[in-house]
Fold each of these.
Amino acid sequence: MWGRLRRPQQDLPVRDWVSTGRPTQMQGFDQALVWVGLALLALGLVMVYSASIALPDNPRFARYASSHFLTRHVVSIALAFVAALIVVQVQMQTWEKYAPWMFLAALVLLMLVLVPGIGKGVNGARRWIPLGLLNFQPSELAKLAVALYAADYMVRKMEVKEKFFQAVWPMALAVGLVGVLLLAEPDMGAFMVIAAIAMGILFLGGVNGRMFFLITAVLVAAFVMMITFSEWRRERIFAYLDPWNEKYTLGKAYQLSHSLIAFGRGELFGQGLGSSVEKLHYLPEAHTDFLLAVIGEELGFVGVAVVIFAFFWLTRRIFHIGRQAVALDRVFSGLVAQGIGIWMGGQAFINMGVNLGVLPTKGLTLPLMSYGGSAILLNCIALAIVLRVDIENRQLMRGGRA
């Protein structure tokens, strides 16, 4: 075993499934990870209810009951919980086998959402497919599909990872195709997260550092060009840089300015649960993209700090599980886990940055907490996959046979 671990990385045998002949035991779970995930879901449920309870006073939501969004959020969490219990039983070998097909399915759904009559448009964006119980958002599935596909891709390209054209260009084209479809919705925020997942997995998989920085430069240049040639994106940047300017305060910076007011009102310990003023039709999308601002106003700096620490711990723990899998020669599993860590940590960072005025406004939810059935469902499925990686790690370390 020692000799195998000491061999160069490119010669590592890839072992991505474990069978011990015994059923999965609950004590095999990383229980701390489960509890932190459940705590974020529970706090999110409470804050979504608090942020949405006054929405029926708005003529746009007049036909909804005060508990409408709470009920739908509870249903989403219940569905996500059932899906997670099923997914945690699926071996990583199965995910590796079907990774390319999941990526293809995500592409098809991203195309379908753009078809009139199939995709549902809200506020000028066409990002959802109505499915009765929830409006499914294909971009959420695309995040998981890209993490699985990129990890599988790096395992298959392990021998040529130092060669740019053979190792990088096919993956770059795949991500580029996803980007074109997402920008057509438009959903630049989701594209940024997906690009980060793919680039992170390429880097962690051992792609040449110079090539990695070249890809980074190309992506940055692409984002700059999109901003330069899009007037409304330029206006968003200017509004972000000067949110209190009269030109932007009631326009492009309206959400940001009211988000900052909410944090200011919260001070150290907040105004108290349910006592937010900004959620009373001042702060748009308070139960989705700007949930952290309501947390800041009602629970103060202390509440926001707890949420930030929880996401930091969650991301760090997911990366630890991924590194452990790679050390056990399970490269695919390790890269998938770390890709999910990039997804959770990166999206949380962007959402928090937007709410606090550190980053330009983007339409990204806070993972595990914001209202949104598709996001909650895929977030829980992703965490279940990480738990499966951890279960298989523990089985190997207890002497299980591969």
Amino acid sequence: MQSRVAIVILNWNGKKHLENFLPSVLASGYPSMEVIVADNASTDDSVDWLESRYPEIGIIRLPVNYGFAKGYNEALKKVQSEYYLLLNSDVEVTTGWLQPMMQLMDSDAAIGACQPKIRMYADKKLFEYAGASGGWLDSLGYPFARGRVFDYCEEDKGQYDDVSPVFWASGAALLVRAELYHRLGGLDEFFFAHQEEIDFCWRMQLAGYKIMVCPASVVYHVGGGTLPKGNEKKVFLNFRNNLIMLAKNLPLTQSLWKIPMRFALDSISACKSLFEGQGVYFKAIFEAQGAFIGWLLRHKKRSVFPMQKKGKLHGCYKGSVVWQHFVKGRKQFSEIVQEKE
């Protein structure tokens, strides 16, 4: 019998996380769910450990490390369920976390995806970097969230506990309609990792669906906290993928000026980092810009584009979060987004 929701955890050498957090997932208590681990060609003994310790869990063995986007696309081809819940291996879930999200999705067929409220595992009072209480996007494509603006994560005092439409839901814990996932082409595999869920949610909204946050559901994410500036690959992927996302989803009239503006702002950020002694960050940004131009000229056919561009977008900030945060010194989401956008 097909489950209503398949919780699919993408694993790569993550035995430690599976040991720590899989028990909480298995204890979720939802009556019609299955848990599947999709393994991205791990070189540790995590799969052997899973088979011996949790024989009831489904395992999908991928032949190589496909990264986040293609890893999920390949794995979900093999999963039959009404809903998929893409869950990072380093997420601790709470009792009853799944029921509110399922109820929300069932309440409105126009909701394509939702996420729980995500707090830090290391400091459970604080919102977590990768999603907090629902993601937003500013006018130039910079992502931020209810409870997290750039590196600043707020303390959760219930200030974002309303069920709300947002621009993007975090890939750390993303509940999505299975049929819709495949119809929209899944995650863009060219991205490999980083910002693929923002692009996917943008395409989903353009197809006429809503993205929601369900704060009644709470999870704790280990994550990486703020983006490590010394990690060249992460910086490269974030900056490259953000530019590709803008080129794919913006109307042409907007992309013609917004992408050059982003080039200028990102270059300023790179130069500032160089003066601060962060040469790796400087190098990664300019490599990302070069790779974006390479994508425009040679690799566009490898990406997934919106099916249509008619849907109404929620969670858009019409101003500049860069200006508000770095120039005006506003740290909290509520100081920047002061009225319904």
Amino acid sequence: MTPTLPETLGVSAQDVLDAGHRLKGLVVTTPLVESPLLNASIGGRLLVKAECLQRTGSFKMRGATNALAQMDDTARARGVITHSSGNHGQALASAARAFGLRATVVMPDDAPALKIELTRAHGAEVVFCPRHAREQTVARLAAESGAVVIHPYETPAVIAGQGTVGLEIVEQCAAASVVPDQVLVCCGGGGLTAGVALAIDRLLPGVPVIAVEPDGWDDTKRSLAAGTLVANDGLTATACDALQAMCPGTLSFSLNRALLAGAVSVDEAMVRHAMRQAFVHLKLVAEPGGAVALAAALAGKVETADRLSVVVLSGGNVDPGRFASVLAGD
């Protein structure tokens, strides 16, 4: 049983429920899909929440749209700014265009080419900086321009919007007359994990939510063990660019510490295997960071035998060349 959530953390389950109503018709209700062969391989039942089919190719559209939908005209006139490896940037750019706002996205200078291209295609101005300088660059540019900062995992409305993934999981499981034994969610800064955990805690209390991270970027796992924020050293190479937050967010971690049942990490080979399995058995394109929760289930990082596991496949924005290499087994 997960701990009871304090009521003073800045984002509540009610905020997630409100976001669910607000986002009707603005985002895609993504399917829960499964494969009998994947089920057989883990000795249980596996339902995959296909957020790679969301608008702009990841769950990030939910949080960005929820945040912008609540801004007043004065704030919207200032425009918005964020930092992102690509998925949040694309989502914010797309939502900003829909609401008629200017958007600036600060991206690390090693961001994947496809994510840069798509962020620009959605109308954002892209500014590059070293990966470690993203927060400082956003703060400086926001001070100069007056733009509103929409943080990828520390803005409360963003966390609430991401939590609608959890709402849909609950609704879709209910429609299928099943109750999950566990829910696995990818974790970078922790906003998606926190939002999903809020929804599951409210609507399916007692169902464990587990964060999944890449090896070497398992700051949430280590922070949960330490009981306080622990940063990554940033030295480990990973293909999971979407999950390269240096440290959990203060707000997101306060929620995750109260709500998560635990966290696990997966290596690069497990991630590549999961990407191949998603394509072969589910006909889904997963980016590396989007595949870590599936990787954890397939690799036995959590117990799956005779259990119903739900995993969030959080995004599909992968460069074609990298994806072809993964499928070829390289």
